[in-house]
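USER: Study each token:
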Amino acid sequence: MMLRVGLIQTRTPATQAAALAQIEPLIRQAAQDGAQLILTPEGSNLLQRDRTKMQDALRPAEDDALVAGVRALAAELKVWILIGSALVANSSKKEGGAEKAANRAMLVAPDGRIVQTYDKVHMFDVDLPNGDRYRESSLYAAGQAACLAQTPWGLLGLTICYDMRFPHLYRALAKAGAQVIAVPAAFTRPTGAAHWEVLLRARAIENGVFILAPAQGGQHEDGRATWGHSIAIDPWGRVLAQAKDDEPCVVIADLDLDEVAKTRQAIPSLANERVFAAPDMAS
């Protein structure tokens, strides 16, 4: 079975309406190029480093302009769209409310319905060597479960950005039946240059799956810089298509889903995996 996908590389601004205006022509281009499944990056609706401004801007998914716009586009264009993630309030905003927000992937069917969601499990809480400091857990509630989505082409595994550093999540998705795993991201430039491609190729090879990683790219209006280089990888670890830089663009790739079974037959690591005891540090 063949599947044509479109990876949207964008440079999300600091408001949902501006984000929709930027991403809509890219989604239309992907659909025009024949993509049946279109994927957008992490934080497709809003990127804002200032915590106070971010909290003021967050809306529940049902009130978010980007989410509503993408749902309308899916229905108009008759395509599947994965909103790689939208940063959304967990409930209607209330004066003095302290509930944490969600970094949430949303799969939209061709009739505009959201048919599956996934909240990012692993929070990016780090101090980078260049002095950048990130504390996602201070604003977002971590997801509690791995997630698969049923599509006409089989099961799609949902992950987000920093999740890629936790191989056990990808193994769990593959063993549960995922043939394709999405990794929408807003990767920093220092870590992107060092780890982006090698980690994604490793996740594909380890699990015999297609990896689809649409990314944010470039210098954003809130001051952050993201790596770009959106990429599609086959189950053997070969790069099928990749953005050449961090500029907004559409990356088209054709997936032969039969390659999943062929690869897993050639290297049956999922079948050969064994349960083992953790090392006993006391001894």
User: Anything to note?
Assistant: The longest strand covers residues 80-88. The chain has one domain: 2-270.
